[in-house]
Amino acid sequence: MINATIITIGDELLIGQVADTNSAWMAQQLNAAGIHLRRRVAVGDVWNEITNVLNQEKLNADIILMTGGLGPTSDDITKQVLCEYFDAKLIVHEPTLNQIKNLFEVILKRPLIERNLKQAEVPDNCKVLFNKRGSAPGMWFEENGKIFVSMPGVPHEMKGIMEDLIPALSAHFKFPYISHRTLLTIGVGESFLAEKISSFESALPFYIKLAYLPNFGQVRLRLSASGEDKINVDRELDIFFTELQDKVKEFMVTNVDESMEEVTGKILLKNNKSVCTAESCTGGYIAHLITSRAGSSSYFEGSVVAYSYAAKESLLQVNKNDLLEHGAVSETIVKQMAKGALQNIKADYAIAVSGIMGPGGGLPQKPVGTVWIAVGNNKNIRSQKFNLRFDRQRNIQITAVTALNMLREFILEEENA
Amino acid sequence: MINATIITIGDELLIGQVADTNSAWMAQQLNAAGIHLRRRVAVGDVWNEITNVLNQEKLNADIILMTGGLGPTSDDITKQVLCEYFDAKLIVHEPTLNQIKNLFEVILKRPLIERNLKQAEVPDNCKVLFNKRGSAPGMWFEENGKIFVSMPGVPHEMKGIMEDLIPALSAHFKFPYISHRTLLTIGVGESFLAEKISSFESALPFYIKLAYLPNFGQVRLRLSASGEDKINVDRELDIFFTELQDKVKEFMVTNVDESMEEVTGKILLKNNKSVCTAESCTGGYIAHLITSRAGSSSYFEGSVVAYSYAAKESLLQVNKNDLLEHGAVSETIVKQMAKGALQNIKADYAIAVSGIMGPGGGLPQKPVGTVWIAVGNNKNIRSQKFNLRFDRQRNIQITAVTALNMLREFILEEENA
User: Fold this and answer.
1) pLDDT tens digits for range A323-379
2) Which of A376, B82, B181, B185 can bridge B251 by disulfide, Cβ–Cβ 3.0-4.6 Å?
3) Chain A closest CA to B416's CA: distance in Å?
4) Which ranges constitute the DSSP H helices of B182-229?
């Protein structure tokens, strides 16, 4: 099996000022290509730390992918470290030099200075992986059959280089085939699921692995297998995956690896229907989730985020007396919000939410975490109350996912009626 | 100096199905407490991998914090590994047992099964760190003066345990003092900034470190120093920080470590003013950023997310003929959106955005990345065009941050007029 390590380099990762989103994305790419990621390590912009982790990781990994520390400023030292580590001297890489000149003079229209030009220099014994989206090139080194690759830490630049890197690695190594099947459940706990499928799990052959991936009211179940024979691996996996789906069908939202907003978006697209949202406590997050998907304009019309009473009245025609009588977090109001959205935005379906996300704003009869969700269309609106027990960010996220699932169920039941 | 390592455990981290947000948060907490985080390592749910990384990291770290692998399902093995590693046997922890019973029977109202009860078992030589938000307790081990702590990977459970852990670590060790000063610039590149402050940077004493933290049109500059004498460290740091602020003042948004939405929110709060948004291409993301902050209801009234022409007309009274003549992504329309929002939502200020975020939807005269932003109030609306060159997610993020900054500048200029 080909083993890989990801090394992310940067002081900012160690004081937590920047969340590392690169590693997860890179891990996905490696996994899809059949490369086993064994470890991810983050170290600071410190000479010894970088050489130490390289020495350590090359003992167990065939591929070492590095990101970060290639910027133009003096805290970035990765290129200098690699130059010494691989006993190289720096030379100018002409295509990168032209790229940098073009980037600054034509696109950014910013003054081009010496330290930007320095970014066109590369160790003379590396293969350059051209950075089509920025100024710091990727670098490919070989030592005793191991591959070392250094890439910039800027996510979209790294991704551009990875697009070319994966095929190059595939050509260099002969990877075993790895395959996964993933399904998503909602509204049921990890341990309850585990109990439900315990006999299935214990009967799995050793070369098929089951993982539980919980995430705010959702649990992903993933079956994985690897082997030399692609057809056999996939056929076996499909047999067990069919059995697994049957065991959890009452909680299953989708049997492909996709998000709740993708599932709901696809149903809307297939039915040629559209949705709108009326959001209070989620503050536009449901609309953001839906519109994060390219192509969502085919099924998303718009939203009203009504935080204040005044906005609820003017944008959604919520009744002032009902607001005063029942409060904004109530069944009466969330249903009026859904109706108002349908009327004003003219989508086929509406999602409406009103709740108390915390940390402040709780009341004795409506503590933090109280949420009303309504979904429906012009014929019928359904509502439900939830009591969440997380922090503000998680309460917003779980409310959004729950609301999208309620809409999914509403549409499916309507189809089956 | 006290060194720490964070070890995150879970197969899901190595195939990229879950982004690791725990590490960044934990890093922040350690940093604030004056603990130097030397490394972060992610490994799979594999017995040897866990023991290997423990053996490796304890050579260089005084504190080893682990998260993950404590769930009730069979892929979670961290507790068993630690039991063997520290030569312990499992015993029932009564307070945790009661917590689990209460969680399932009273709060979740889900059946309590054997594998949940197993979570109340802990190695007999660890100190239990009670998990007030879930069923898997934290565990504190000591070996040769080193501290090993294992916590669940569920973020809000880990955070609850960390709240008690940091004071316990502070009591156990005597930490040197570490201090940071951070400022945020917007609209200027990392290398241009570096050039502007190069003489400042090269004159810094060895014990003060400067870091550049770029993030989509924003660059954070951070000065760090550590030492035994808190007063001296802070006094020296303040002198250099004052000089740094002066050097970059024309690009500086704030001189504390806060986000663009916090900066704008604070100005609104101070002036007792409110804002609303009219969003097309950002799909509610600006509203989401604003409402992510607790207390935002004091200065945020609401938003209209108008994706379709129809929603722009009905919710923002955008003129149909102008839409047809100029297109939705135009100065005329974005100004009308701002006006419509001010009129309907009745906030003091409005932010309006319309653009093409990609990957589809580009036109020859309006390529992907074309964005119009308008900010203003009932007296005056200002607009500006931008040409972004990132992917969909980044284009949405940079548009939101740029719009919030335009509003900040608008308010400050109004104050100074």
Assistant:
1) 999 999 999 999 999 999 999 999 999 999 999 998 888 988 999 999 999 999 999
2) B185
3) 29
4) 190-196, 198-202
